[in-house]
């Protein structure tokens, strides 16, 4: 019971301080795709909302795993990730947002994400990255560039044409164009739980 009370208190505290955290998607990607998400790293507490604000160009905000930076999470794990689909903002003429609520079950989890169009050049980011863990943003960027948009575990996509139909439905699915991502149905379930962030502690600190 004490645990429940503490949880309720934690929830109340975080509700009281719930905030919107803006990640601008677009920027000037002409010279460096690592600026597509600005900032590329944000920290959010339970009940905060991370808002991707698509302001320029044609990008996605799609959740992935650390091991497979450029592949939709649903294709590489049994988890269900967020995916904005392509958002064509033009030159600021068609600004749209994608909201990602940080639900209490996401406490102590890192949410990695990428832009389908610039992932291979480092167009990636993360929510609640544990800076002390080995899974850093810099490592994630390196992974994305090294794998060049491919699956870490399978560089032969011709072996599977069944992936996209076995994944969970997408949350807001316009076409993300990644139906050709190959054999991503292999399980990497543990990745999503690997990193730990002190969200509850942070909530009490406010
Ligand atoms: C984007 O950056 C490039 C290189 O720094 C620069 O030449 C270009 O003018 C910039 N574009 C905009 C819209 O700021
Ligand atoms: C892109 O920008 C990031 C952050 O400013 C920097 O660390 C990186 O070296 C840049 N890459 C290139 C190719 O300019
Ligand atoms: C998104 O960016 C546009 C253009 O900079 C700005 O007008 C708008 O207020 C932003 N939306 C949010 C939710 O921050
Ligand atoms: C956005 O990018 C995707 C993939 O590169 C492409 O298929 C789609 O046509 C683009 N959308 C627009 C409006 O340019
Ligand atoms: C504006 O963005 C929405 C959502 O991404 C897209 O469906 C629509 O086609 C875009 N409109 C234009 C004119 O690009
Ligand atoms: C953005 O502006 C540039 C320069 O004016 C233009 O060449 C380009 O076609 C525009 N892109 C869109 C999607 O409107
Ligand atoms: C971050 O990761 C390190 C190394 O895996 C771990 O020891 C630490 O407990 C994590 N941080 C938090 C706040 O849990
Ligand atoms: C990365 O992938 C793109 C698109 O498939 C390809 O054109 C490019 O040659 C690849 N680069 C490397 C270094 O493999
Ligand atoms: C990619 O394919 C080559 C040739 O089949 C293989 O030697 C290599 O281990 C594969 N790489 C990965 C990451 O699976
Ligand atoms: C990829 O898979 C196909 C079908 O199984 C096979 O014929 C081909 O040799 C494989 N290519 C590589 C590089 O492993
Ligand atoms: C697709 O995947 C399902 C479930 O793993 C399997 O039962 C089915 O045989 C697969 N179909 C094809 C064409 O590979
Ligand atoms: C989250 O991490 C903090 C700090 O390591 C820990 O005290 C707390 O029990 C964790 N919460 C959950 C739900 O795992």
Automatic annotation (TrEMBL):
Annotated spans, Disordered: 148-183
Segment forming the signal sequence: 1-18
Entry keyword set: Signal
UniProt-listed InterPro entries: Cupredoxin, Ser-rich/MCO-related
Family annotation (SUPFAM superfamilies): Cupredoxins
Biased composition range(s): Low complexity: 155-166, 173-182
Protein name per UniProt: Extracellular serine-rich protein
Source species of the chain: Cristinia sonorae
Top-level taxonomy: Eukaryota, Fungi, Dikarya, Basidiomycota, Agaricomycotina
